[in-house]
Amino acid sequence: MLRINSSISFSESEIDFSAIRAQGSGGQNVNKVSTAIHLRFDIKASSLAEQHQLKLLRANDQRINKLGVIIIKAQSFRSQEKNRADAIDRLTRTIRDILTENKPRFSTRPSKRAQRKRVDSKTQRGKTKSLRGKVIE
């Protein structure tokens, strides 16, 4: 079982892993060993609750394609096991970040004293600048 938080979890069998060759430098290891992991998680076919599925599908995330599949490519490490663990960790963080509720924002207003102080400092600055003009004889 893969735990996202205390109330959300799903089976690891719902995740599709495939090993591919990593990109970039690395010498002969890159050319002959498939160490990168391509993780695919189908949101619609998962055992997540329907409201969680809808929230994930509505999320503006480039890793979620039009078919509702989260695709993560992990190739940071030289071993397949570490890349697999990294991909699972990134999947859980992605789902957790999308499903967490943000605190509602409320507008604030500066106090009367702060407004007065701001205007007084502006007028003082204006007086200072007006004294910098040419001296009239």
> In terms of per-residue confidence, which ranges show pLDDT below 50 for 5 or more consecutive residues?
none
Helix content class:
25-40%
- Tell me the count of domains: 1
Number of helices: 4
Beta-strand fraction estimate: 15-25%
Main beta sheet, described?
A: 3 strands, antiparallel
The Cα radius of gyration reads: 27 Å
In N-to-C order, the SSE pattern is EEEHEHEHH
What is the second-level CATH architecture? Answer: 2-Layer Sandwich
The CATH top-level class label: Alpha Beta
Sheet with most strands: strand arrangement? 3-4-5
Query: Would you tell me which CATH topology applies?
Result: Double Stranded RNA Binding Domain
Report the span from N to C terminus. Answer: 88 Å
Mass-distribution shape: elongated
Rounded average pLDDT: 83
Which structural class should the secondary elements be placed in? alpha+beta
* DSSP summary, beta strand count: 5
Write the layout of secondary structure elements.
Elements: E1 2-3, E2 9-10, E3 15-20, H1 28-32, E4 36-42, H2 50-58, E5 69-74, H3 80-99, H4 112-130
Structure summary:
With 137 residues, this protein is α+β, with helices and mostly antiparallel strands. It has four helices and five strands; from the N terminus they run βββαβαβαα. Strand 1 and strand 2 (9-10) form a beta hairpin.
